[in-house]
Amino acid sequence: MFADLYQAPGGLCSWLVVGLIAGWLVGLFMRGRGYGCFMDIVMGLLGSFIGGFLFSFFVEGVVGFWGSIGVAFVGGCVLVAFGRLISPKRD
Description:
By secondary structure, this protein is mainly α. It has one domain. It is 75% helix and 0% strand. The chain contains four helices and no strands. The chain is globular, with a radius of gyration of 14 Å.
């Protein structure tokens, strides 16, 4: 997985772009506004790991750029929903 990061010239950049787009979408969908540029990337990247794990049970093969954004978005939504379940309620 990390070997692909160094072999493909745009690997790290594409990870960051997917993370930014997916995190921004999660921020819009789950909260109504984003978490800030850095946290949007973090949410998207963590969401991509969670979504990749969840989708590995149902989908085989490469999903491409837009599929990666979709997987990261679903994983980010799961991450935010889980965080809301375990965090105390705000007034």
